[in-house]
Amino acid sequence: MQGNITSLCGRYGRAAKHNLKLMIKKDMIHFIGTDIHTESIPLNDCYIALSKIVTKEKYKEITSSNFMLIVKDKPIIPYPITRQNKLLEIVGIDKIK
């Protein structure tokens, strides 16, 4: 799954920021990027925000390594999750805003 980096800077509101952080922490995000037409938010600030909530290894993985796997036609191994069928159960229904 891809997350929009500008959500971490609040472009889409507090709920989107909170939910993206939650999904990142639950290893549900495999790529982080942006829509190419975003100009009003300094992306560097957003990437700094990301670096504060993930390890260096995870940062590299979701910002570049996984993209390179796709370019090289290599598989991306999904992160393991608990055996639950619904997104809200995986993330935690009480945590979604």
Rg computed from alpha carbons, rounded to a whole number of angstroms? 14 Å
Extended strand count = 2
SSE succession = EHEHHH
Q: What is the molecular shape? A: globular
Count of helix runs: 4
Question: How much strand?
Answer: 5-15%
Molecular structure report:
It is a single chain. This protein is 43% helix and 6% strand. With 97 residues, the protein is mostly helical. It has one domain (2-91). The protein has a two-stranded parallel sheet. The mean pLDDT is 83.
List keywords for this structure.
single chain; 97 residues; mainly alpha; two-stranded parallel ribbon; 6% strand; globular
Please give the structural blueprint.
Blueprint lengths: L1 E3 L9 H12 L5 E3 L9 H9 L4 H16 L15 H5 L6
